[in-house]
TrEMBL record, chains A, B:
It is found in: Membrane. Residues 1-11 have a biased composition (Polar residues). This is Chloride channel protein. The lineage of its organism: Eukaryota, Metazoa, Chordata, Craniata, Vertebrata. It comes from Acipenser oxyrinchus oxyrinchus. GO terms for cellular component: lysosomal membrane.
Length: 791, 791
């Protein structure tokens, strides 16, 4: 089971270098067993170095071990952190001090311009996806309808089935190959990855142009291929990639530098723009600009700030407006603004839709159902993911699984249409893709409609079709089969969202519930099953993803009816509470399975007994202000000690006495210094040092070269490097006695990457990084500590 | 001009003690002149002590100087800060460590219960206000209508006028007396005060029960008295007071302690609940729960946290639901949920209301108009406020002004009705209070309708009445007169909101603009002036208050139409940009006139040249861990040195060498220690100290007794006090070289009250407090520094 070579779905290569990173599969539940397996490799030694900072990517020695730890009790040290805290070194401060207030104003204006561009491009991408999916669905419908029409007469319906299945498989295989072989980071909805990014974890490849391209085509293929997926989640990811690209004014992949927005080339600014991009994506997906803002804030608001929020909102507004405007043109109604998002729930306005106070307990009960069903969904998907991690990790296997799912989906759909006898008269507001199939003339098969429509349209019909449009039996069968298909589909090597399938499942059982209630009360008051479909959809979605405030607002904006706020909120809250009792939200499960050091909002409540002293990594590798180049190169090259931040202290002595803190320097800064040979020759009495600019650091951002690529001669090793100009002279510090919640709060509120622990004389005694904080969590038996793995 | 005794409108007494605080009127523009005036008083000495921490309230020696500084270049040191940072001393940590995870869960549940209670009570208060205003307006209408009907025949219309004016004046005088004489903190909308509170400034009396009672009755009187005011702003204040009261589980005013929610008796928790209360208030006022959440976050989100936000949202939802439910019962439609807020813009749904892309430039132009008109409004009100501060500061004068405004308002209304000949046929959807007046039978006077309705209803008619309902001339006159009345009214000693008058002015000129456009284009495309009324209302409100994200969401929620999001946002943004070019927002003007040390989101962009060394107060009064009681009493009693936080250092020597930082202790903690005589007798070798509990500190919160009320005998003065158990051993620190923006960020992000500045050996060299940061701002000529006044 161990030592099998494979790729990880969304993190096989590292952002920093593009090199393959070794991945180790823990597979078991305990680290002891984990260590035994690799006892003769170099892993064991490194597992014991729990005092590692976020490890970077220069280790190649163990690259034959290609598995991932899916053990949720492990934290991987392969993820780097984003640095939301500016390194306020002399260079930076001098630059800031040179800038006039006019220049700051120009910067502010360019931030707005970037946000406008993010909004426009995100809207255009959404528009492209929407139109392309519609076109593809139309073509497919015509082919299949023609075949059914032809073959029904001659009794050869199996030919139609084969044709349908083959068509779906062919479409899906294209997207799946692209994802599995070329960019695994484009798999899935991308929401867990964006959550991690906004949380401050750098997930390799997530905001690359290539990922965007493959994501967009992947979504087209999986939606058009008839899988139980949506195109909304991927929009959020797309928006984030667009934002990361535009805000940097260059594309590293295309090797084009437009020499604009250079000021924004650092983690702080980039992360702000990425949050705007994610919001623009939500906005375009659901026509929910406010929901988008709240989504970004819920996921990453160590950085709430009025102006930033307003810019995020602007990007969201522009994005939904752009989508709306161009879809209006496409539909031939220039200037019509009725398509604010990819999905539109339709307007809930007529009298029958108004809910009543005494229905609220019913809604809450539906929330409970949503929580339970969501927990079942998540548990099944969790098991499936574990299975996939163990056995389906080669790209070709992944593609084969995707094809299998496509074929099964087509077969199930066909079987259900075949055995369903739910014929509905062709009404005035005719379904767009009516299939007569086995119905009499003038009627259409409602099950076929549900399967042939894009899922978005199916959701809408479940919400709005008049009572009686759907047969209870059809709905029941549909719920069951779609539930199974959806949980199987999520996690495949295709780009696909989870929102729409969840909404669809929920809408189906919600409507069923509504019909049941109407029957119970003899149809008197429970007038509209569509209302229950809406509540069911909210309950199911809430039970699966466990989002709260932002999801409420998204649902409210998508329905366009503010009065549904309270029931939707109650339902989402109930679903979350019930669901959390059993198992975590699906995104969190997938984040944990990737062993990402994700920081929650607060430290565990019962962690006041822990202090910085117990939490920190110690001893810390420090440098002195005037440091030997050879020393620096050795430290950076040492794979067992690949920290990313180094305190700069008064003197670096071999004695046990720790040095007094003078500053903090980052690995990336040292790399740039080494690359530019900013050395001071020991022989010379006058210290002549090549003057570096902020620009040199910005140009290298974000893909700093690995230390191995920098050649330092033996003579140069004897030179000295003066770090005082480049280090951050005022890093944040805490005393050793600081309680964990307090350390956590400081770290989280300021989006730090390194926090120096000092004693009462300001001497460095330790370093706290993300992993040191993320490993504590509240388990079933009180506070638990996760192990840190090397991979 | 100087030395005149008076009360301040919203800050005459101090929260801490209830004693009168001396207030000094700067009146002039420069501090030099300011100092000259009082050169023989004790003020000058104290003006020079710029190194003061937030001063507390024990100074009585200058209480004969009762004026306020209205100079916006001054910061008053009389405001205390809230401490959002927990003092994690041994007592606190021991308590936290004793608590099991079940107890933490129970705490979390009780937070939810408190939020539910806040929502319910806020909704009930809103409901009470709504019903009471409606009843009073009905009574008044009947009386006046009867008189007009009677006297029109006999030609004695002046009698009607006098009756009307007298009635209004009588109603207004009651509220005004209550506000001016009993609780000046209840004046105005309360939004500036709540902004300050959420920002972390303790405004005296703002969250007291008495303030709530007077506020509620004050609003009834001013709205029913026909003033140009709304009842929405006061709802936000009311919600905040309710939250502050409930969350503490006791009322200090009523001297009732319910012994519940004791854990919440500290600034951190209280401020969280107050933000929930403010959100609940917005929610009840506008039926805008999401807008409420965003309002709270915009104003005070140094503390964004997912669970907290979700609770705030819950309180908002419950509040609008409660209001809705009870108004439904009141209107005889149990279970009907169509009254989500005090004001309801009505639904913008019909075809004519849909805006088109090419209308957007027009909307932006309206935004410009709104910005300009808003700036004019604010400037006029600024001058008026200066005038009021100088000449109208006695309560009896304030009441007289309020009566005058009431009479003038009635007269103007009457005159306009009299000279207006805008008669409209009594249509099918009849106005609620039609006045025939000088119109022919079967018609009603539309001007009279506009003045006799509650302003909320007038806004709605401007938005929704069919084209032609209002005559352009009427609208023009109405705009002008209401504009003048509204700017005169804001700042009177009555409880009154600004939202509705602003909306009304904007809706009037917006509708006028719409009619004008319709005429220009021959009524072809510009079908509905109501749409323009909405945009005009947004523009005017935005131009006056300059709120951004939250206001957009509030407007969208109040219209119930999501598609209006983009134009409303564009309009608000334009109005803000244009308005900010001329003058600040009205709330900010009033905050500045009160010299409140308000912290904005970020330090001024060009302030990187400043470091903690320049910003901090120095030297700092420190204590040693074992400190003489006499020393402590002397320091606390010294009015010239009334800091609120004292670093605890290694040794307190007379030498210049600063001590090493061991902790931070607050004035309030020392007061409690002194009160409980937690002394160690020097003679005894064994240190026996009375054991204090967290409860002792909580019981004293928030009204800690002044040092003068604590008697310490001469013997006791010779005792020692061991501070180590009570001090916060891990205060946040920064090195001296830290740049101002970095200090600011730390301070703001964590909601600090004191930040200790240390040198490289961790010795205390200074202390940064709110005032040290708030005094830097970006003026016309670069970075400017405000003076700190003693009052």
């Amino acid at each position: 089971m161990a030592n099998v070579t494979k790729k990880v779905s969304w993190s096989s290569r590292d952002e920093g270098t593009g090199e393959s990173t070794p991945l180790v599969n823990g597979a078991g539940k305990d680290t002891a067993r984990y260590s035994r397996q690799f006892s003769n490799s170099s892993i064991l030694r490194r597992l014991s170095t729990v005092d590692l900072d976020d490890q970077s990517n220069e280790d190649t020695e163990t690259s034959h071990l290609k598995e991932i730890p899916h053990n949720e009790k492990l934290l991987s040290s392969k993820y780097e952190s984003l640095d939301y805290d500016n390194s306020e070194n002399q260079l930076f401060l001098e630059e800031e001090r040179r800038m006039s207030s006019l220049e700051f104003r120009m910067l502010e204006i360019s931030r707005w311009v970037v946000c406008a561009l993010i909004g426009i491009l995100t809207g255009l991408v959404a528009c492209f996806i929407d139109i392309a999916v519609e076109q593809l669905a139309g073509v497919k419908y015509n082919v299949v309808k023609h075949s059914i029409d032809t073959f029904t007469e001659v009794g050869g319906l199996s030919i139609s089935l084969i044709l349908w299945a083959a068509l779906n498989a062919a479409i899906v295989v294209v997207g799946s190959i692209a994802v599995a072989f070329f960019e695994p980071a484009a798999a899935g909805s991308g929401i867990p990855q964006i959550k991690c990014y906004l949380n401050g974890v750098k997930i390799p490849h997530v905001v690359r142009l290539k990922t965007l391209v493959i994501k967009v085509f992947g979504v087209l293929s999986s939606v058009a291929g008839g899988l139980a997926v949506g195109k909304e989640g991927p929009m959020i990811h797309s928006g984030a990639v667009i934002a990361a690209g535009i805000s940097q004014g260059r594309s590293t992949s295309l090797k084009r530098d437009f020499k604009i927005f250079e000021y924004f080339r650092r983690d702080t600014e980039k992360r702000d723009f990425v949050s705007a991009g994610a919001a623009a994506g939500v906005s375009a997906a659901f026509g929910a600009p406010v929901g988008g803002v709240l989504f970004s804030l819920e996921e990453g608001a160590s950085f709430w700030n009025q102006m930033l929020t307003w810019r995020i909102f602007f990007a969201s507004m522009v994005s939904t407006f752009t989508l709306n405007f161009f879809l209006g043109i496409y539909h031939g109604k220039v200037g019509d603004l009725s398509n604010p998002g990819l999905i539109n729930f339709g307007r809930f306005e007529n009298e029958a839709m108004v809910y009543n106070v005494y229905e609220i307990p019913v809604f809450i009960f539906m929330g409970v159902m949503g929580g339970v069903l969501g927990a079942i969904f998540n548990t099944l998907n969790y098991w499936l993911t574990i299975f996939r991690i163990r056995y389906i990790h080669r790209p070709c296997l992944q593609v084969m699984e995707a094809v299998l799912v496509a074929v099964v989906t087509a077969t199930v759909s066909f079987a259900m249409i075949y055995f369903s006898n739910d014929c509905q008269p062709l009404g005035e507001d005719q379904a767009e893709y009516p299939l007569q199939l086995f119905c009499s003339d003038g009627e259409y098969n409602s099950m076929a409609t549900a399967f042939f429509n894009t899922p978005e349209k199916s959701v809408r019909s479940l919400f709005h079709d008049p009572p009686g449009s759907f047969d209870p039996q059809t709905l029941g069968l549909f719920t069951l089969s779609y539930f199974l298909l959806a949980f199987w589909t999520y996690g495949l090597a295709v780009s696909a969202g989870l929102f729409i399938p969840s909404l669809l499942i929920g809408a189906a059982w919600g409507r069923l519930f509504g019909i049941f209630l109407a029957k119970m009360s003899n149809g008197s008051i429970w007038a509209d099953p569509g209302k229950y479909a809406l509540i069911g959809a909210a309950a199911q979605l809430g039970g699966i993803v466990r989002m709260t405030l932002s999801l409420t607002v998204i649902m409210v904006e998508a329905t366009g009816n503010v009065t549904y706020g309270l029931p939707i909120m109650l339902v989402l809250m109930t679903a979350k509470i019930i669901g959390d009792y059993f198992v975590e939200g699906l995104y969190d499960i997938h984040i944990k399975l990737q062993s990402v050091p994700f920081l929650h909002w607060e430290a565990p409540a019962t962690s006041h007994a822990l202090t910085a002293r117990e939490v920190m990594s110690s001893p810390v590798t420090c440098f002195s202000r005037l440091e030997k180049v050879g020393n620096i190169v050795d430290v950076l090259s040492n794979a067992a000690m690949n920290n990313n931040g180094f305190p700069v202290v008064s003197e670096f002595s071999a004695s046990d006495e720790p040095g007094r803190l003078y500053g903090l320097i980052l690995r990336s800064q040292l790399i740039v210094l080494l690359k530019h040979k900013v050395f001071v020759e020991r022989a010379h009495s006058s210290l002549i040092q090549r003057k570096l600019q902020m620009k040199d650091f910005r140009d290298a951002y974000p893909r700093f070269p690995p230390i191995q690529s920098i050649h330092v001669s033996q003579d140069e090793r004897e030179c000295m490097m003066d770090l005082s100009e480049f280090m951050n002279p005022t890093p944040y510090t805490v005393p050793q006695e600081t309680s964990l919640p307090r350390v956590f709060k400081l770290f989280r509120a300021l989006g730090l990457r390194h926090l120096v622990v000092v004693d009462e004389e300001n001497r460095v005694v330790g370093l706290v990084t993300r992993k040191d904080l993320a490993r504590y969590h509240l388990g079933k038996h009180g506070l638990e500590e996760m192990q840190i793995s090397q991979t």
